[in-house]
Amino acid sequence: MSFSLGQYPSEGIYLAGLAAACLIRLPFAAMYTNREEKHPLRQGLDSVILLFVLFGMFGGPALYFFSDIMSFADYRLPLMAQIFGSFVFIPGLWMLWRSHFDLGANWSPTIEKRRGHTLITEGIYSNIRHPMYTAHFLWGLAQCLLIENWIVGPSLLVSFGALYLNRVDKEEQLMLQVFGSEYQAYQRRTGRLLPKKTQEEELP
Question: What is the CATH architecture of 9-189?
Answer without folding.
Answer: Up-down Bundle (1.20)
